[in-house]
Amino acid sequence: MMGYAESHADLARGAELSELATGDLARRDANGLYHITGRLSRMSKIAGLRIGHDAIERALAAQGHEAAVWGDDSRISIAICGAEDGIAAMAAQLTGIGQQHFTIHPRKSLPRRANGKIDYPALKAQSAQRKPARNVLAAFQAAFAPQSVGRNDSFAALGGDSLRHVELSLALDEALGGAPAGWENMPISTLEQAAPAPGASLPFDLVARVAAILAVVVAHQTLWPVFGGAAAMVILMGMSVAGFRWEALKSGDMRSFFKPVAAVLIPYYLILAGYAAVWEQVPWVSVFLAGNFAVTIPETHLMLPYLYWFIEAYLQMTLLVALPFAVPPLRRWLASQGAFRTGLCFLAFAVALRLIVPEVWQIGGRAQFTVPWVFYLFALGWCITAASTLRQRLLVLGAACLIMPAAAYLGGNWYGGWIKYMWLLALVAGLLFVTRLPMPRFAARPLMRLAQAAFPIYLLHRFVPELLMPMIGLEARSPLNDALAIIGGLALGLAAAAAQRQLIQAWTNARNRGGHGNSDQLPRWIA
C-alpha cells in the first residue's frame, strides 16, 4: 500500500505506509488471501452483534431476492423488489436478531447510479418520503415474539390478550398517531395504511384501567373513600376474556385459553418466592392459590398478605369459566348461543352464587375476596363486551342497575359500600356507551403507560410503604408520607413494567441468536 497519489511524481516515492485505513471490510481465507466484503460504514451493531449490510444483501441475493440494505445501531432497513412477506423473518434468521429490528420497504425497482451501483442516498430519501410500515409490523412482532407474525395477521387472529392489547395500543399510538377504531380485527397490512383515530382520545376501557389501579393504590394507603378499584379490575377482566378468548373457548382450544395465565402466575410466584426467602417458610396455602378460602391468616406465614387475593380469584374464575367448555356437548350448546347469551348464563349463575354461598359459607369479612362475592362482576364485564346492539347494552345496564344497589345493601348497607357500587354502576354505563374518551394529547401517553403497568403496580406498590420507606425511617403516617408511598408505588410498578419489556426483548434476541443464528449463512464480518 503506497497511499494516495496526488501527482505522477508520487508514484516514484515507493511505499510509505504500513497500513491504510480505507474503511473497507475483508475476510482472510485459508490461503492468506483477503477478500473485500463491504464498507465499515455499512455496518450495524444490534444486540451485541456486528451485522454487515452488504452481507445481508448477498445472503438475500443467494436466495433469489434483489435487495438493498442500510441502517444504524437501532434498526436495519431492507428495500426489497417483489413480495415482502417473510423477508423480515428471513433476515432475523440470517442475522440472529429479532424481526422487530427490521423495516421492510417493498419496491418495484432499486434506484441505481450510472455505473450500475445502488444509489443509497436516493433510496433512503424515497423510503423516508413513503413511510411504508410506520413500525406497525415491528410493534406486532415485538408484542408477539417469538411467534411468527406476517402482514396478513391481525391482533385477534394472533390470539391477543388484554396485556398485549394495552401494549400494542401504546405502540400504535406512537406509530400511527392514534390507534383507529376496530384495529384489533384489521390485518396489519390494512392497519399500516389506516388513518389514526380523530383527535386526541383513548379507549374508555383503557382509562378505566388507569382509574382502577389508582383507586387500589390510594385506598391501600389512605382513608380516602376511593373504594372499588379491585372490583373494577374484575369487570375489566371479564371484558378481556370475552373479547380475546371467546374463540378459544367455543372451539375447545384450552391451551390458547389458558396461555395468558402464565403472564399472571409467573410474577406472582416470583413474589411468593421472595416472601418465602424472607420468612424462611414456604406459604403453601398461597402456592396452591387458596389464600382467599380463609383457611389461615398471613401472620402464620402460610399465605401471602390479603392483597394478592385478586390473583387467586383470577385463576379460580378462569377455571370456573373453562369448566363448562371442557364438556363437549355443553361447549357446543354454549357456542351455539353466542357470546352474549353465554354471558347472561354466567351472570345468572354468578348472582345465584352471591345470594346463596355467603349464607352457607360464613367467613366474615374475608368473603369479599372469594369467587362468589366477585364472579358477578366478571360476568357483567363479559356481557359488556359481548353486547353488540343497543337493546343488549340496555339489558346489561338494567341488570347492573338492579345488581349494584343489591350488592351495596347485602354488603353491609354502609356508606362505603354505596360509594363503591354506585361508581361501579357509572363505570358499567361508561363501558357500555362510551367508546373513546377525549383528552389533551400530553396526557394520553402517560395514561397509556400507567395502563400498561397496571398489573406490576398492583403486585408491587405496597413494597414502598411496607418495605422501602421503613428502611429510611419513614414509617409514621402523614400526608407527605402517604404521597410518597402512592407515587413511589406507581413508580416501582412502572419501572418493573419497563424492566419486563427489556427482559422480553433480551430473551427474544438471545433466542434468535441461539436458535437461528448461523455463521455459515451470514458471517459477522469484522474490519
Euclidean distance between termini CA atoms: 17 Å
Helix content: 55-70%
- Total number of strands: 9
Order of secondary-structure elements:
EEEEHEEHEHHHHEHHHHHHHHHHHEHHHH
- Which spans have pLDDT < 50 for at least 5 consecutive residues? 515-527
Gross morphology: elongated
User: From the structure provided, what is the oligomeric state, counting identical versus distinct chains?
Assistant: single chain
Radius of gyration: 29 Å
- Name the strands of the widest sheet in spatial order: 5-6-7
Q: Tell me the structural class.
A: mainly alpha
What would your notes on this structure say?
This protein is mostly helical and 527 residues long. The protein folds into 4 domains: 108 residues, GMP Synthetase, Chain A, domain 3 (2-Layer Sandwich); 60 residues, Non-ribosomal Peptide Synthetase Peptidyl Carrier Protein, Chain A; 195 residues, no CATH class; 37 residues, no CATH class. The chain is 57% helix and 8% strand. The protein has 21 helices and 9 strands. The strands form 4 sheets. A 3-stranded mixed β-sheet has the order 5-6-7, with helices on both faces. A two-stranded antiparallel sheet has the order 1-2. Strands 3-4 form a two-stranded antiparallel sheet. A hairpin with a 2-residue loop joins strand 3 and strand 4. Helix 16 runs antiparallel to helix 17. It is elongated. The chain starts with 23 loop residues before the first strand and ends in a 12-residue tail after the last helix.
